[in-house]
Amino acid sequence: MRAPQVIDDDERRFERRLPIRITVEYEDTEDFLTDYTANLSIGGMFIETKDPLAVSTRFRLRFSVPDRDEPIDTVAVVRWSQPASKTSPMAPGMGVRFEELSPDDMAVVQAMLSNWM
Questions:
Q1: Are 40 and 101 in contact (CB under 8 A)?
Q2: Which fold has domain 16-116?
């Protein structure tokens, strides 16, 4: 079984992630992709995908939140990835951190997380 790839084993998540499933859109070098989140925090999310981007990849990310007409459009970076595995109960995908979340978008995400709790 392959272990998840991470940027820095000493870096730890400080924000609580909640199991929120929303559609995300993002671009790799060749395609525009659509997948779903498994969880979300104010600092990032886990995107379920069979083809995670490489660790350290920066990319444009868009996702919609309830009660808001415009999607949140930000830049994220892949912090770790989980390859597909028949022996792991964890879904394949990638943990990403928001790099350029505006203060207004951060407030929207925080409000959504607060309502979800």
A1: no
A2: Thrombin, subunit H (2.40.10)
Q: Which amino acid is at 51?
A: D
Range 43-47 average pLDDT? 95
90-102 residue pLDDT tens: 889 999 999 999 9
Domain segments of the chain as ranges: 16-116
Q: pLDDT tens digits for 46-61? A: 999 999 999 999 999 9
SS (H, E, C) the chain: CCCCEECCCCCCCCCCCECCCCEEEEECCCCEEEEEEEEECCCEEEEECCCCCCCCCEEEEEECCCCCCCCEEEEEEEEEEECCCCCCCCCCEEEEEECCCCHHHHHHHHHHHHHHC
Angle value at C-alpha 4, between 47 and 27, nearest 5 degrees: 35
pTM, 2 dp: 0.82
